[in-house]
Amino acid sequence: MEKKPRPRAQNMKRKRIILESECETMKMSGIDVKLPPKVKPYPSQKLMMFRILQSLKSCQNAMIESPTGSGKTLGLLSSTCAWLQDYQVQRQQAKTTCPKHGASKQDNHGPLDMEELESSAVVDSDMDFSFNATGMSRIAAEMDDDDDFVVPSPVLKRRSMDTSMISQANLKRAKVEEKEEQECTCLPRVRIYYGTRTHKQIGQVVKEFSRLPYAGVIKHTILASREQSCIHAEVKKSFDVTGTFLAPDGPGCAHKQNIRAAKLDKGPDMRRFIEKNGDSVWDLEDLVDTLSHSKPTICPYFASTRVLTSDADLIFCPFSYLLDPIIRDMSDVFMNKAIVILDEAHNVEDTCREAASFDFTEAEITSAMEELNLKRMILRKAQERVIAHPSSHNSPTKLPETVPEVLDEVERHLAVLTHFVKNLHDWFVSVTSDVVNAPVKFGGRQTKTMSFAALSNSLKDSRWHGLYFKKKENEDQASSDEDQTLHRLHQEISLTHFVKNLHDWFVSVTADVVNAPVKFGGRQTKTMSFAALSNSLKDSRWHGLYFKKKENEDQAGSDEDQTLHRLHQEISKSYNFMCTVDKPGPNGQPLDEIMEKVLSAYKLSGTTIVCMEKFIYFMTYYSRNADGINNMTTYKGFVCIEKEFQSSRTPMRSGGGGKYSATQSIGSQLPWNEFGGTFKEGEEDEGGWKSTRKHEAFKPVKPGHKVTLSLWCMVPALSFKDAFSSCRSVILASGTLTPVDTFESELGMTFKFKMEGNQVIPKEQIFASVVSRGPNGARLCATYKNINENDIFTQELSEIIKSVCETVPKGVLCFFPSYRLLDKVYQYMEQKFILKKMEKIKAILREPRRSSELQEVMDQYERAIENPKLVVGPQGNGALMFAVFRGKVSEGIDFTDDRARCVISVGIPYPNAVDEHVVEKKKYNDDSSKPNSVMPIRTLPGDVWYSTQAYRALNQALGRCLRHRNDWGALVLVDERFVTQSFQGPMVAPHAKISKWVKEQLVIYDEYSDFKMELGEFVERMQNRDRDNKKLEAENKLEDEDNTEWKSFSRKTIPSILIE
To answer: Where does the signal peptide begin and end (predicted)?
Structure first.
């Protein structure tokens, strides 16, 4: 029975998702696939669903390229949901026949209820200090998920998550499931994770899901950040929602507490509540709208990301929740036996490399170091007061008896973290100090690159060599007593020292860059090979945690490996303890309100949390040797020194004393005078570190400059396999995966089932062309040399753009390889008054560099297309958008119909050949592609990788045009490099890795006059078709209205029996 949507509140603007009540069923690969009513799938859509079902049934991976408009999303959802529904029936049958849990083996409590187990309570304030497979605790972290995945805030690449509602039940459930797999014949639970690039795309996918009969039956939820789902009246006004909520003095959330109060902490209960107040199928905006108007109001963030994940079969989320190790570990994401769909996966290689790469700045490390030292100093003052006045009756509040014990626990964990950061600081200094003397390059940059060997050596030489530190020479090495080892840990591997060592390592690696040549933009840089990076790390104090001891070190102690593992866990546990908002008291008992206030005073800031967790995750990746693969060789270090840039919009400033910075006034957070403490500026702690908040204790690598140490992962397979190696199947899908050459080699997985779908739009509606000569006969080749030698190319291109805009109505998109070339052409057209002439027929717009300005530009673009006469003038016919490949316009925006009647692509968008990251990636691929290579994964040569990146970006931009079966448009490729000469005449070059559907219809024009004439004829033909279609639609509508009126009249004047 179809469910009617409830009336919406007055302020509700969006229409709710309506479920389809009927369906079409089609047998495929032995499974009934249900589709929306009256939907007849295209041949390419059928093939796609068949390939997906094959991969799911055989536990294999699939790669699906299906052009936009071919029903890709509906095909992905219908096939996977059909398989899952069929599997769930098999799973229930397997449970019935299971020797352990079947009907014949019921005990007094009956058989195990899997659904009840899977929907167990997920809201639990007690933090569980369990460790995952990597030895890491469930660390508090959350990414700022911007809609378009633009560059996040400078300090918080990954933000801290509130872990107070992370459930022990989820961990217990995972353990129970693992035990059941080993001891019974029940089939394991399978979930579907549908990953997209942006939150906006999730809304579009959920809308398609609602059309299927599986909607409301297959239970779903959406993973999103607080930025998208917070309903706290004050917090959501903040520029930095997550930072505000997680600040040491951040507000609480009554909406979150209502979950337990209303007994909605189980998935089924929450789903019934949502359906009662809204609908069974919803996107994120619907959920926020429903729960913000419900009685009581419920926090959408915790409802969707904590409660509903317990029983969800289908989870929609951005890529970061699946690929980023920090986000994935902190979210209720269970990859074991899961089906993962990565939609719009053409950039998945870059995303994976970024997920396993980490940046450190000198400012964030020193800021973390100062906060830890400052809090330890205040803590010692507090401990002295407690000792002096254990039960002060003069204080406004009597201190609980557990205060000394809890403060000792906090001090112990702070000590571990301080040593950790200290080691990081020392290593940083050692790696960066020599860059000060590097030549200054263009842009004022000094840089150095470290090979994997140099990086490895720097780590070996740093202070954390013996489990983040070198053992003292006079220290007794014979004792294997665990208590003494842990005692030494607490003394020497304090977290304060960790941050200090991190800082020292940073300085050591970056110091020499100061003398490097200044590059363009004032940057000084250096790149470290994997060997150099490895050496810098191995020489650091934390060497022993991840590396074997040096040969001359005492090897006594048979339980060395276990001890190192315990010590690593101790650091992780301390880190986890200090990141937790709600801590358990002694013996696991909940803390009273007073104790919570005491502990909140020592909660770490986001800058410190992120600084430590980044290095912990880096070392986890770096030191892992799985399947015989040495991950150390996949990393390179890069040091860059450049002029400091202060952003006025940064919510958290490293060392700047902002509201959420590490150097904020901690004393002001303390609940009463006994814990307020006092300290003198310049006072030193046990480690010799001053308490000042002005960084006087730290000597900068290069005053007035920003020093950044980047640890680049060269192989995306590290993070891809880390995320998906335990999955049942991984499906990569996009409208433009071509060229697919590098996916298997770069991601380290085999995709047995592949498909390159045909375009469903009729050929008559597509005008695909290559223009190799300009209007004046000049050859067109958009190479750097050709563009900069003279203005011939710019002149010819300007005339082509003007001519196309005069011929093609409505929207025209023109893509350039770089902003530099875009600006050059724009300025030329402006100087020659070409733009002035064009502005009479089209609004001229440029893609902004800042994401925050994009929406305004897009609004102007659409207004000019919808009302050209009003916006442009009497001769107006639309708008022209100048944009760049790989930019904000080239991906994620739907230019349907009039929004893009033509796409002009200028040149071939190869990555910047002088960019240090690109240079190092090409070198790495060249080395790893050799037969005798020592690299862990065999890749394609650097030039092949380089070319693949270019054509993938080109194909993505071309896909902005032609979005559905009735759409039409022109594709104009301006560059002679797409053409090769043969005895039959010009033809598409074999090396041109253009999408199949484009290449099949590509026409090469060696004479511009021929191109101009045929483009005009095509446009005229399409406009005539549109006019005929509109006329036919109007006639049909009028006929339908006449029939309706006749039937209404007939029922009143003619006996019904004559009509029926």
So the answer is: none
CB–CB of 254/238 below 8 Å? no
* Token digits of residue 726: 């335990």
Decide the pairing of beta strands 979-982 and 985-988.
antiparallel
**How far apart are the C-alpha atoms of 397 and 95, rounded to whole Å?**
57
DSSP for 294-361 reads SSS---HHHIIIIIGGGT-SEEEEETHHHH-HHHHHHTT---TT-EEEEETGGGHHHHHHHHT-EEEE
**Cα 345–chain centre separation:** 12
Asked if residues 920 and 980 have their Cβ atoms less than 8 Å apart, the reply is: no
- In 203-245, the DSSP E strands lie at 220-222
C-alpha to C-alpha distance for 813 and 956, rounded to whole angstroms? 13
Give the pLDDT band (50/70/90) at residue 933.
confident
Residue 222 · residue 317 · CB < 8 Å: yes
Helix (H, G, I), strand (E, B) or coil at 990: coil
DSSP 499-544: HHHHHHHHHHHHEBTBBSPP-TEEEEEEEEEEEHHHHHETTSBTHH
Element holding 883 (H helix, E strand): strand 878-884
**β 878-884/1002-1005 pair status:** unpaired
Instruction: Look at residue 436 and tell me whether its pLDDT is greater than 80.
Output: yes
**DSSP letters spanning 432-496:** HETBBTSPP-TEEEEEEEEEHHHHHHHHHHSTBBTTTBPPPTTS------HHHHHHHHHHHS-HH
Measured from the Cβ of residue 726, the count of other Cβ atoms closer than 10 Å reads 13
Look at the alpha carbons of 938, 939, 940, 942 in this order and tell me if their dihedral is positive or negative.
Answer: negative
Write a three-state SS string for 800-863.
HHHHHHHHCCEEEEEEECCHHHHHHHHHHHHHCCHHHHHCCCEEEEECCCCHHHHHHHHHHHHH
980 forms beta bridges with 987
What DSSP assignment string belongs to 929-953? TSTT--SSS----HHHHHHHHHHHH
How far is Cα of residue 1025 from the mean position of the Cα atoms in its chain?
43
Residues contacting 895, CB < 8 A, separation 6+: 811, 813, 960, 961, 963
Neighbours of 235 (CB within 10 A): 19
Half-sphere exposure (Cβ direction) of 963: Cα atoms closer than 13 Å: 15
Per the listing, tokens 């929609």 go with 316
- Contact criterion met (CB below 8 Å) for 287 and 304: yes
**Alpha carbons 349 and 362: distance in angstroms, whole number:** 29
Which secondary structure element, helix H or strand E, spans residue 414, and what is its range?
helix 403-432
Q: What burial class does residue 174 get, using C-beta atoms within 10 Å of its C-beta: 0-12 exposed, 13-18 middle, 19+ buried?
A: middle
User: Does the pLDDT at position 697 exceed 80?
Assistant: no
* pTM summary value: 0.80
Separation of alpha carbons 471 and 473, rounded Å? 6
pLDDT at residue 355 in the model: 92
Q: What is the pLDDT of residue 130?
A: 32
For residues 476 and 480, give the distance between their C-alpha atoms in angstroms, rounded to a whole number: 10
List, in sequence order, every residue forming a beta bridge with 733; answer none if it has no partner: 64, 343
d(CA 894, CA 967): 12
Average pLDDT for 656-671 = 36
Output the pLDDT for position 746. 92
Structure tokens at 807: 């011929």
pLDDT at residue 478 is higher than 80: no
Residues 182-236: tens digit of each pLDDT:
577 888 999 999 999 888 889 889 999 999 999 989 999 999 888 888 877 777 7
pLDDT of residue 247: 64
Tokens 């003394």 locate to 491
Report phi then psi at 21, rounded to 5. Answer: -100, -15
- Overall residue count recorded for the chain in this entry: 1060
Phi first, then psi: give them for residue 915, nearest 5 degrees: -65, 130
Distance from C-alpha of 1038 to C-alpha of 1042, rounded to nearest angstrom: 6
Strand 635-643 and strand 443-451: the pairing is antiparallel
Query: What's the mean per-residue pLDDT of the chain?
Result: 76
Instruction: Give the rounded percent of residues in the chain with a pLDDT score beyond 70.
Output: 70
**Which of the two residues, 659 and 430, has the higher pLDDT score?**
430
